[in-house]
Amino acid sequence: MSEEKKALSFYDRPGVEKEIIPIGGGVPIGIESIFSAELGIGGAYGSWGKSYNNSSMPSFLEDRLGVPLGPDDVLNLSELGFDYRQHIQDMEPEEHLKLELEVGVRLLNKALKVCGWNASEVEGVLIGMSGPVSDDYVVQISRLAGIPEHALKVSVHKACDGSMAALHLTLNPSLSKPGQLNIAEHLKGKKVLVGGIEGLSRFTSGVSDKNALQLFGNGMGVIGVVPGETIKLLVGKSFENYDEDGLLAVRMHYPYSKPDASEHSMVDVIRENDDHIRIAGLMHEPENGESIEMAGLMGMVKLFVRTGVQVVTDVYTEYQALMEKLGKSGQAIKIGIVHHANFKINTLKAKHLSKVGIEFPMPWLLNDFGNVSAASNIIAFLRQLPNIHLGGHIMFDGFGAGTYYDVMAVSMGRN
Question: Please, what's the b/e burial string for 190-207 (b: 16 or more CB within 10 A of its CB; e: otherwise)?
C-alpha cells in the first residue's frame, strides 16, 4: 500500500475548512473545529503551507538547503509517526508577520465560534510559541480578533512545552511567585483561550540540521476553557532541568533578560504592560547562530525520557494519594495527552512508566502534522475530545527543549 493511500494529508480530512491566504503567492490554510457539549469545551486546530508527504519531503529539503541529500540523510519518518508536514515558501520578514497574523486571527475566531463565545467575553489569551514572529504577537492577534484590550495576554516561550505551560498557569495558582500576578486566580471562572501557534517552517528555514528540517512543520491549536469549571486541576508539577550539553539547542527569538539560569529558575517572567505577560525560558542556543540544532534522535531520547518519566511518576503518585484521600481510589486516569516529539520517544516513555505500574492510553494522533512543538498537545486533546466524558480524569504531559516539563492531572467538565 502506498503512503498516499494509507495516510491522509491534514487538508484531506473531512471537516477541515480550507482557503488560500493571498500572501507570498498564496498559502493554503486548513482549520478543523471540535466541540463537546457534554464538557462545555471546544476549540480549533490546523496548519498552513503546502503539505509534503515522506516521498516529497527530500526534494523540498534539497531546495531549501541548496544541496542534494545522501541516502543516510533521509529519516524513516513513518517509523517515527510522521507522514506529512506543512511548509511555506521563502518569504520576506514582513510577509511572514502578515501571514502569521492572518493565521492566528483565523484560529482565534474559529475557536470563539465553536465555543459560542463573543470576543468581548474573553478575559484571557495564553499562547505557547517556540519562536514568535514578533514580540507582541499574542497582543496583535487578540486585538484583530476583537478581544478586549483589558483581557490578559500571556506569551509563553518554553519550546514544545509552551501550550502546556500556558494551561498549567491557567489552572494552578501555586505556580505564581511572590510579587507576580497570580494568573490562575485572576482567570478562575472566566472565559479563556489557551493554545499553541507554531510557524516552524519559518523558524527552521535557515537551519542546516537535516533532522530538524524533516521532523518539524507548521501547526496550531486553541481551546476555550473556563478554569475551575470546565477543567479543574487535581495535581500538577512544573519542572526545569537545564540542557547543559545542548542536546536540543534552540535560539531564543524572544526577549530574555537573564544571561544564565538563576539559582531559583530558568524562566523569566516579564510584565510588558498591565495586560501582557511574557514567560520566557532559557535555552542552550546553537553555537552556529542558527535557530535549532539537534544531537540526533538518540540524543532526544536521552534528553526527554528519563526526566519525563520521573515527572509523570511524581504527578501520578500525587494523584493516587489525592484519590485515596477523597475516597475515590478506584478513579483512574482515562488517557494521557502527551506532546508528540516522535513515536519512539513516546512509546519508550510508556514502556518505562509501565515498569513502575503506571499505565494509561497515550494515543498517537498527529501523523499528518509532524512535530508541531507547542501545538501538539492541544491538537491531540481536540482529536480525543469526543472520547472524553463528564468527570473523567486525564493527564496532560508537556515537555520541551530547555528543558521544561509541565504535567497535570485534571477533571473534565462541569459536574
Answer: bbbbbbbbbbbbbbbbeb
Cell of 34: 471540535
Q: How far apart are CA 44 and CA 222, in angstroms?
A: 6
pTM of the model: 0.95
Write out the chain's pLDDT in tens, 415 residues: 334 446 789 999 999 999 999 999 999 999 999 999 999 999 999 999 999 999 999 999 999 999 999 888 999 999 999 999 999 999 999 999 999 999 999 999 999 999 999 999 999 999 999 999 999 999 999 999 999 999 999 999 999 999 999 999 999 999 998 889 999 999 999 999 999 999 999 999 989 899 999 999 999 999 999 999 999 999 999 999 999 888 999 999 999 987 555 457 899 999 999 999 999 999 999 998 999 998 877 778 888 999 999 999 999 999 999 999 999 988 999 999 999 999 999 999 999 999 999 999 998 889 999 999 999 999 999 999 999 999 999 999 999 999 999 999 999 987 5
Output the domain CATH number for residue 123.
3.40.47.10
Per the structure, the complete domain to which residue 25 belongs is given by 3-412
In total, how many domains does the chain have? 1
Q: Which amino acid is at 79?
A: E
Query: Is residue 128 a contact partner of residue 376, using CB atoms and an 8 Å limit?
Result: no
